Amino acid sequence: MNLCVFPLAWDFALLLACSLISAAVVEHTFNVADITVQRLCRQQLITAANRTLPGPTINAREGDTVVVHVFNKSPYNLTIHWHGILQFLTMWSHLLQ
């Protein structure tokens, strides 16, 4: 029985080490501000991150650490939320359809 446990433990340790080695720190800065856009021949003031709507895409892989710096330059309080992230065992999962 002990002979089978050691190879499984070694495989698990090797898998864990490989996942930690390939992990990266993905860092972004969001400058949130009001901008004027023209939609349907009419100018409208919107709040956007890095002058884009929808906001910038964050590309990361499983195991990566994501750091996002948010600078609110708009006159409004704001919250940031993410689309397309699978969150197990939480009611806050908000996946794209």
TrEMBL record:
Domain Plastocyanin-like: from-to ranges: 32-92
UniProt key word Signal: yes
GO molecular function: copper ion binding
Superkingdom in the source lineage: Eukaryota
Family matches, as Pfam families: Cu-oxidase_3
Key words of the record: Signal
InterPro entries: Cu-oxidase-like_N (IPR011707), Cu-oxidase_fam (IPR045087), Cupredoxin (IPR008972)
Signal sequence residues: 1-23
Similarity-based family: Belongs to the multicopper oxidase family.
Name of the protein described by the UniProt record: Plastocyanin-like domain-containing protein
